[in-house]
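Q: Could you fold this chain for me?
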Amino acid sequence: MEITLSYDVVTRLILAILVGGAVGLERELHRKSAGFRTIMLICVGSCLFTMISVKMTTGGQVAANVITGVGFIGAGVILHENTRIKGLTTAASIWVSAAYGMGIGIGSSLVVVLLALVVLVGLFGFARFETWLLSIRDLREYTITLSDDLDKVEHIKEQITACDLHKRAGSQVKRNGQLVLEWSVLGRSGQQDCFVQEMLKDPEIKGIEW
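A: Sure. Below is the predicted structure, expressed as structure tokens.
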């Protein structure tokens, strides 16, 4: 029932380290919460658990528990920040790395290596595409505080249009004698920065956050 130290076992574990390390390195280069060491350990751990499960009559239960445990780790890197959710790609990388380890553990090394190469190309390649896409479609949630002046609100709307931006949705409330605008504005990153600079130069704008 025990796992004997053989060339095949060592090769699988080393391959799991390399594949998990490659995915983790991509996350590390993008300065994400789970990087090289974390994802490498998940991949090699999943590989070892899978090899152990093959030797057991309850192997399916072990594999299911590995997936559940990895799910908890993935959930820990997902963060909710304002209106955005961060960490989903890192969580998915953790999840797929566990799948790599399990695939290597049952001997499907070639399939895992090919899939890992495709995923790595996608992660590196689409990161640039995503950056470009965000630069032309940057949605920001602004909180603008100003004096209780409806004319100034109209001026801000005009400034949004002048910067070639589009107000998607929003609300305005009165707090402590001041107006607080909470608006969603869509446009290019450069135009968004232009709008922020115009707001910062306006002495009647008490504050702007996004």
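A (continued): The two ends are 59 Å apart (CA to CA).
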